[in-house]
Specification:
- With 122 residues, the chain is mainly β.
- Helix content is 0%, strand content 51%.
- The strands form two sheets. Strands 2, 4, 5, 6, 9, 10 and 11 form a seven-stranded mixed β-sheet that branches. It has a four-stranded antiparallel β-sheet with strand order 1-3-8-7, with no helix packed on it.
- The termini are far apart.
- The relative contact order is 0.32.
Length: 122
């Protein structure tokens, strides 16, 4: 059974930075598109960033502030978050697709982590 475990969430002040990590197990990691999503209370789960065979891609709301990267040797994907804003506050989820192609929809991903809370205080 595929497992995704996120770490690195926490409380940070406006303008600060955090780096989230997602360790994958029981997955041929290098062949899989990976993504980060987030969900604020009372809202839908939204796409943040993805990394597939074509490289990284981002939601407009985080472009220029967040960077997704992956280390295939460690089966880990990262999300570096800089210049954080209060509206970035959410539970952040790591996701993996069975396929190498990913997109911005929740339905494109087959496996999900348990989520990690990110809170940006003003």
């Amino acid at each position: 059974q595929v497992q995704l475990v996120e770490t690195g969430g926490g409380l940070v002040q406006v303008g600060g930075s955090l780096r989230l990590s997602c360790a994958a197990s029981r997955l041929t990691f290098s062949n899989n598109a990976m993504g980060w999503f987030r969900q604020a209370p009372g809202k839908e789960r939204d796409f943040v960033a993805g990394f597939d065979w074509s490289g990284p891609f981002y939601a407009d709301s985080v472009k220029g502030r967040f960077t997704i990267s992956r280390d295939n040797a460690k089966n880990t994907v990262y999300l570096q978050m800089n210049s954080l804003k209060p509206e970035d506050t959410a539970v952040y989820y790591c996701a993996a697709s069975k396929y190498g192609f990913g997109d911005r929809s929740v339905g494109a991903y087959d496996y999900w982590g348990q989520g990690t809370q990110v809170t940006v205080s003003s």
